[in-house]
Amino acid sequence: MATGALSMLKCDRDIRKIIEKQARFAGVKLYDFVNVGNHIHILAKFHNRVLYKRFIRSITGLIARRVLGAQRGAASAAGVKFWAYKPYSRIIHAGRRHYQNVRTYMAKNRAELFGAKREWINSSDPAAASLLEILKDWDSAFTERVLC
Question: Environment class of residue 136 by beta-carbon count within 10 Å: exposed (0-12), middle (13-18) or buried (19+)?
């Protein structure tokens, strides 16, 4: 599982490149993504199910290989299973409210990466609300420079 030595944060730059490259290759509109260390949140637009499958299959395999240091076609290192679960997908409606709810959720995950406590993030503290607004538009390239 992607924690500790297998945390995806250690390869954040490479994972970002994998996601962006595979999105271009599959014709996927990538809006945002957050690497949380043991899972990734992706906000993207897929024109059909085939593109979704192509994208998910490619990134899950490439990310696992990158983190585990495995080569294509090689057996998993000592039988290590990288992904604990199948990808969880959720379709959001085109309405702005649904989109903003997902962006807020992703911003909360970003805030936790910087050490903010979940209780504070979810509180009515105006500073928490301000931080979430900033993190909604956060550049993932900057996160990489701060965390790595």
Answer: middle
**Residue 65 to residue 74: CA distance in whole angstroms:** 10
The sign of the torsion formed by the CA atoms of 99, 139, 28, 80 equals: negative
For 66-100, the pLDDT digits (tens) are 888 876 656 555 566 778 888 888 888 767 788 88
Q: Which one, of 128, 107, 124, lies nearest residue 41 by Cα?
A: 107
User: What string of H, E and C letters represents the secondary structure of the chain?
Assistant: CCCHHHCHHHHHHHHHHHHHHHHHHHCCEEEEEEECCCCEEEEEECCCHHHHHHHHHHHHHHHHHHHHCCCCCCCCHHHCCCCCCCCCCCCCCCCHHHHHHHHHHHHHHHHHHCCCCHHHHCCCCHHHHHHHHHHHCCCHHHHHHHHC
Q: Could you report the per-residue pLDDT of 5-30, keeping only the tens digit for each?
A: 778 888 888 999 999 999 999 998 88
Tokens encoding 124: 């009515």
Nearest one of 41, 12, 18 to 147, comparing CA atoms: 12
Q: Are 126 and 134 in contact (CB under 8 A)?
A: no
